[in-house]
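Hi R.,

Here's the chain you asked about this morning:
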Amino acid sequence: MYYIEQYPNRLFHQFSYHIPLLVSKRAVVRHKVKRILLRNLEARILHLDFWNMYYKWFITLNKSKLSQLLAFLEKKDSTQLETYLVNEHEQFFSSFLKRLWKKIK
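And the predicted structure, written out as tokens:
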């Protein structure tokens, strides 16, 4: 993940998720993964009130994590897939936001 400061005239964040073709060649599957991650972002991350700057965030999946994700996609179990993605997403963002918060202070 990396981020840059947003344009000064835009008072909102922009998030971009990149789900590689390695996950699935079917766009439906990649969009499903992206929707799960965005839903989690909206529900748990964006409500934090310490944002004093606005950013553009570019997030891509880590290749070392793809084997677990691909296993869940093969099983076609949506609940397990969603649980896995939400847990990984929250774990990543919580550690990242702690580092960002220390920088801001």
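The chain is about 55% helix and 15% strand.

Let me know if you need anything else.
M.
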